[in-house]
Specification:
Layout: H1 15-33, E1 40-41, E2 59-62, E3 68-70, E4 73-75, H2 80-88, E5 95-100, H3 106-118, E6 123-125
Parallel strand pairs: 1-6, 2-5, 5-6
Antiparallel strand pairs: 2-3, 3-4
């Protein structure tokens, strides 16, 4: 026996749907602003062509095959973190120059920078283009 005073309503209530949509939008906005960042120091051009402190710079090269060289000495990927810790344990300035070869993958360079940060490097620098030839 249908009740004539309260007829059935076939409309969909969209309020809960909009609430869920608003929560998702806020969540994605918060996730986009909580990005991890890594500080990098760009090279400064010197008037004389040689800057103070460049002679004792430590350069980590990321090779095209995914390997590494630390000041021209090959370093296996498995021992890179330990090698960097050894090098920087006695140094007051923990600055590392990271140089990627032309064929090196972007992800490999970022992984090397991340390993360096976990090994105690505080400043990651990019070598000036005239002091490093990535085709070597």
């Amino acid at each position: 026996m249908p009740n004539d005073m309260h007829p059935l309503n076939g409309d969909i209530n969209v309020t809960p749907f909009l609430d869920v949509l608003l929560v998702l939008i806020i969540t994605f906005m918060a996730a986009m602003t909580a990005r991890k960042a890594m500080d990098a120091q760009l090279p400064v051009q010197c008037a004389t062509g040689t800057c103070a402190g460049q002679g004792d710079a430590i350069v980590l090269e990321v090779l095209a095959n995914g390997g590494y060289r630390l000041n021209s000495a090959p370093v296996p990927a498995t021992s890179l973190r330990a090698r960097l810790r050894d090098v920087y344990s006695d140094r007051p300035d923990k600055v590392l120059q990271v140089a990627g070869h032309r064929g090196a993958r972007y992800q490999d360079v970022l992984s090397a920078m991340d390993i360096a940060k976990t090994a105690g490097v505080t400043v990651i620098s990019l070598p000036p283009s005239d002091s490093y030839d990535p085709r070597r």
